[in-house]
Specification:
This is Ribulose-phosphate 3-epimerase. The chain has eight helices and eight strands. With 224 residues, the protein is α/β, with parallel strands linked by helices.
């Protein structure tokens, strides 16, 4: 199992002082910065583009930037985020006409590649591409908005994908996004996740370090 990663979603941050928010959450123990990129087409919301990624890099952020593209079509924007400083780029199979080609595109630009499965997307979409992935991201809410509640069926899906990843013998991360909180992260970790996106649970808290520490402690207890 990979090391535990907490990736706060800046969707829930204060955008009027985004650089400071990201600095503070990283100082508080966060490992990655998670970007929720929405296009008001694939999902019913409009958020941020490559300029924000580039601005954070220029601000001095050196932590991995984990870009989750909820856009359709996806291939057009991949090179822009790679150039802007993305570390990892994940996309939804429904947003690509040729899933394997999009994975190749991401990697050709020097980024790690992830595939995102919505709550109703079957896991067999991974069958022929999992060996080419660096990460699988499971959505435990329907994409489009922050602050939603965790969908319990995601736990069984995590267990299934964890078995698939383990069978490859490769260091593929298993990320979860949606409704992750300090009080449910233990059961999520027990189901197989090693990378945890949390937005409102962290940014709506008065003490970022306290929330992140409680999350990491809960995961550590599950892993022994």
């Amino acid at each position: 199992m990979q090391s535990t990663v907490i990736a706060p979603s800046i969707l829930s941050a204060n955008f009027a002082k985004l650089g400071e928010e990201v600095d503070n959450v990283l100082k508080a123990g966060a490992d990655w910065v998670h970007f929720d990129v929405m296009d008001n087409h694939y999902v019913p919301n409009l958020t941020i583009g490559p300029m924000v990624c580039e601005a954070l890099r220029k601000h001095g952020v050196t932590a991995p930037i984990d870009v989750h593209l909820m856009v359709e079509p996806v291939d057009r924007i991949v090179p822009d985020f790679a150039k802007a400083g993305a570390t990892m780029i994940s996309f939804h199979p429904e947003a690509s006409a040729h899933v394997h080609r999009t994975i190749q595109l991401i990697r050709s630009h020097g980024c790690q590649a992830g595939l995102v499965l919505n709550p109703a997307t079957p896991v067999d979409v991974l069958d022929w591409v999992i060996d080419d992935l660096d990460m699988v991201l499971l959505m435990s809410v329907n994409p489009g908005f922050g602050g939603q509640s965790f969908i319990p069926s995601a736990l069984e899906k995590l267990r299934r994908v964890r078995r698939m990843i383990d069978a490859t013998g490769k260091p593929i991360r298993l990320e979860i996004d949606g409704g992750v909180k300090a009080d449910n992260i233990a059961e999520i970790a027990a189901a197989g996740a090693d990378t945890f996106v949390a937005g409102s649970a962290i940014f709506n808290a008065s003490d970022y370090a306290d929330v992140i520490a409680r999350m990491k402690d809960a995961v550590a207890q599950v892993r022994g």
